[in-house]
Design brief:
Spore Coat Polysaccharide Biosynthesis Protein SpsA, Chain A; 9 helices; alpha/beta; 10 strands; 235 residues
Length: 235
C-alpha cells in the first residue's frame, strides 16, 4: 500500500473521554486522499479508547510522559505521510481540517501551516478572548516573522520537520513556537485564518486569562534572552 498523503499525530495523556470527541472529528474528515492517525497515549482508559476507535491506525504508548513535544516527536517517528498534522486530545477539528492543511503543500516552498483556535465551551468571554489571543494575535505576529503554529492546529512538511530535528524535547513550554521559528529557515509558514479548531478552555478557566498572558510573556522573554529557556511545566 502506498504511503498516506498525510499523517495526524494526537498526544493524549489521561484524556479518555475527551479523546473520543477528537477521534470522532477525525473520522468525519472529508478528504479525497488517504491519511493515517497515530495516537501517543498514556493512561489505561486513554489507551483503551485509542485502540478501540476504527480511525486510529497506530497507538504508541507514551511511557516517558515527558510532555507534548516529546510525545509529538514519538508519534511523528511512527508516521509515513508526506505531511504531518498535529492536534490535541481535547480538541475537535472541522471536517475540512486535513484537506485545508494538506492543500497548502501544493506550493513547494510551504513547510508549515497554522490556524486559529476557538473555545469548545460556550460563553461570550471565551469567544472574545480566544478570538483576540488565539487568532488576532497570530494575524498580527505572523507578518513580523514571529510565527507561532499552535500545537493543536498545525502541520509541517516531513522533510522540513526532519531537517530541524522536530520539536525540542528539552522545552516544557513554547515548544510549538520554537518549532515554528526554526522552520522559517526551511521555507514559508502559512497562517490559514479560515481553518480553526475548537479546543478546551479548561486551562484558561483554571489559571485565568490574565495570568495566562503573563505566563506567556515571561516565557517569550525567557526564550529570547541569552542563557534562558522557557522550561515551565505549565502544560
Amino acid at each position: 500500500m502506498p504511503d498516506p498523503d498525510a499523517s495526524v499525530v494526537v498526544p493524549a495523556r489521561d484524556e479518555g473521554p475527551r479523546l473520543e470527541r477528537t477521534l470522532a472529528s477525525l473520522a468525519a474528515q472529508r478528504f479525497e486522499g488517504r491519511f493515517e492517525v497515530i495516537v501517543v497515549a498514556s493512561g489505561a482508559r486513554t489507551v483503551a479508547v485509542a485502540r478501540a476507535h476504527s480511525i486510529v491506525d497506530r497507538v504508541v504508548i507514551d511511557d516517558r510522559q515527558a510532555g507534548p513535544g516529546p510525545a509529538r516527536n514519538r508519534g511523528a517517528s511512527a508516521t509515513d505521510g508526506e505531511v504531518l498534522l498535529f492536534t490535541d486530545a481535547d480538541t475537535v477539528v472541522p471536517p475540512s481540517w486535513v484537506r485545508r492543511h494538506r492543500r497548502h503543500y501544493a506550493t513547494p516552498d510551504v513547510v508549515g501551516v497554522g490556524g486559529p483556535l476557538r473555545p469548545l465551551e460556550d460563553g461570550l468571554r471565551h469567544r472574545v478572548l480566544f478570538r483576540l489571543l488565539s487568532d488576532w494575535w497570530y494575524r498580527a505576529c505572523w507578518p513580523t516573522g514571529f510565527v507561532q503554529q499552535p500545537g493543536c492546529n498545525c502541520s509541517v512538511r516531513r522533510t522540513a520537520f526532519e531537517a530541524v530535528d522536530g520539536f525540542d524535547d528539552s522545552l516544557g513550554f513554547l515548544e510549538d513556537t520554537d518549532l515554528s521559528l526554526r522552520l522559517r529557515r526551511e521555507g514559508t509558514l502559512v497562517y490559514d485564518h479560515a481553518c480553526p479548531v475548537d479546543t478546551s478552555s479548561r486551562r484558561q478557566e483554571r489559571v485565568g486569562y490574565g495570568r495566562l498572558c503573563w505566563i506567556y510573556l515571561v516565557g517569550y522573554l525567557e526564550y529570547v534572552l541569552p542563557g534562558r529557556s522557557p522550561t515551565r511545566d505549565y502544560f
